[in-house]
Amino acid sequence: MIHNLNITDTEYAELAAQGYDPNLELELIELGEPQQQARKLTRIVGLVKNKPPETDEEWEQFMEVWEEP
């Protein structure tokens, strides 16, 4: 099933490269999270699901997502 995630193909590709899981985002939305918060949480999970951030670049990327409103 295809869901409208309100992102472009390019944005999706960038998120997917960071471990983004659209199914998790949709589950969070179904549980009542606002879409913006669901995307933020999904991105954070994607960034740390395989290993914690180790390099300065990984930490910078993580903190950038963490500090998003």
Can you walk me through this structure?
- The radius of gyration is 12 Å and the shape is globular.
- The N and C termini lie far apart (29 Å).
- The chain has 69 residues and is mostly helical.
- The model has no long low-confidence stretch (mean pLDDT 88).
- It has helices at residues 9-17, 22-30, 35-48, 56-66.
- It is built from 4 helices and no strands.
- Helix 2 (22-30) crosses helix 3 and helix 3 (35-48) runs antiparallel to helix 4.
Mean model confidence by pLDDT: 88
Helix content: 55-70%
Distance between the termini: 29 Å
Strand tally: 0
Radius of gyration: 12 Å
Please state the structural category: mainly alpha
Q: In terms of per-residue confidence, which ranges show pLDDT below 50 for 5 or more consecutive residues?
A: none
The biggest sheet amounts to: none
- The shape, in one word, is globular
What is the count of DSSP helices, taking H or I runs of 4+ residues?
A: 4
Portion of residues in beta strands equals under 5%
* SSE succession: HHHH
